[in-house]
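Please decode residue identities from the backbone states below.
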């Protein structure tokens, strides 16, 4: 048992406290720059810093956000006036999280598939992040649906790495967010997505058990069960909610404190509506809390408004706050599409 067991349990519970979710803002420089480029924002360290400052200083964000996942560059940065981001988060009551994976790389021998790297020296990186104030971590594995894939090899290799990462985190005092993402890209049906998600979660929990990961000291961050973006029969909100919950109930131990979904390329409205329907229909009958750990579905409208211009910061923060609020409502089954009206921006 980890020396940190009690602290890890308390942190995991706080991460999924009722009405709260986790903000993913751990885009690596490559991903962040790609998003900036699309909007004509200079891809400099200063603009990445300014954007992350905008997010972390959004007034009252902690009403809806329990913790935020940072990237290595971000956890070392400070506000324009020199206050470390870690201090800003601690003062705001937002738990510090950190992405510790090294990204999804081509999986040798398996064309078209990826395996997430980053286990080398992970123990010492975790120790450094803990000292910097981090209390949870994230590792994302990517499973692609396509012609003849995913292979067993890909699912098992990723599940194994997730388990090695998770147990190292628990030994070092960080709650592991275990993120196996089945990509939404492709023309696959919701039924195929169910099958692949089911196989992936089975493999992940088998490996977690084998590596002695404490289920009550982790958070699962899965994708929803949903038809591919190019499928000729798009899924309905009810289908997504019903099939996702069925798949989770069949695979996720009751001792896991929470499931916090990624948005994975769904629109803002879909991400909120799907989460809401799961909670409205099943919330009180589920063994774990069901909430969000979105990146794009919380940030995108704010980023588009900001566009790298500091004069737009305050209004962009209002947009970010608005999406966090709507997803908080969805996490307790109290969201409705009428709440989508854009707030009056100052
Ligand atoms: C923020 O994006 C994370 C991945 O970053 P890199 O690809 O740069 O490593 C990603 O893991 C994210 O945390 C989750 O996918 C949730 O984000 P979405 O946008 O799917 O909600």
């Amino acid at each position: 048992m980890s020396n940190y067991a009690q602290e890890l349990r308390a942190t995991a519970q706080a991460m999924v406290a009722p009405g709260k979710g986790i903000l993913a803002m751990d885009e690596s420089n490559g991903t962040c720059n790609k998003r900036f480029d699309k909007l004509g924002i200079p891809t400099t360290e200063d603009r990445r810093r300014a954007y992350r400052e905008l997010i972390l200083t959004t007034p009252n964000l902690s009403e809806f956000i329990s913790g935020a996942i940072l990237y290595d560059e971000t956890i070392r940065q400070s506000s324009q006036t020199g206050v470390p981001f870690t201090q800003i988060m601690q003062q705001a009551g937002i738990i510090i999280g950190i992405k510790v994976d090294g990204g999804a790389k081509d999986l040798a021998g398996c064309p078209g598939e990826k395996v997430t790297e980053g286990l080398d020296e992970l123990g010492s990186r975790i120790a450094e992040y803990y000292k910097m104030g981090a209390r949870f971590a994230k590792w994302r594995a990517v499973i692609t649906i396509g012609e003849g894939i995913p292979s067993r090899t890909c699912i098992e290799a990723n599940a194994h790495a997730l388990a090695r990462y998770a147990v190292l985190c628990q030994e070092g005092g960080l709650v592991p967010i275990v993120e196996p993402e089945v990509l939404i890209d492709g023309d696959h049906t919701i039924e195929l997505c169910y099958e692949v998600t089911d196989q992936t979660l089975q493999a992940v929990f088998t490996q977690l058990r084998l590596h002695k990961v404490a289920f009550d000291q982790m958070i699962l961050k899965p994708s929803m069960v949903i038809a591919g973006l190019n499928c000729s029969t798009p899924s309905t909100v009810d289908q997504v909610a019903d099939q996702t919950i069925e798949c989770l109930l069949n695979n996720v131990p009751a001792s896991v404190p929470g499931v916090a979904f990624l948005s994975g390329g769904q629109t803002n409205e879909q991400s909120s509506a799907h989460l809401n329907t799961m909670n409205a229909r099943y919330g009180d009958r589920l063994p774990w809390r069901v909430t969000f750990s979105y990146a794009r579905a919380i940030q995108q409208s704010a980023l588009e408004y900001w566009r790298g211009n500091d004069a737009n910061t305050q209004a962009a923060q209002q947009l970010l706050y608005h999406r966090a609020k709507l997803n908080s409502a969805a996490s307790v089954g109290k969201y409705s599409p009428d709440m989508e009206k854009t707030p009056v921006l100052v």
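Observation: The pocket of 2-O-methyl-1,6-di-O-phosphono-D-mannitol is lined by residues 24, 26-28, 31, 103, 140, 181, 262-264, 294-297 (CB under 6 Å).
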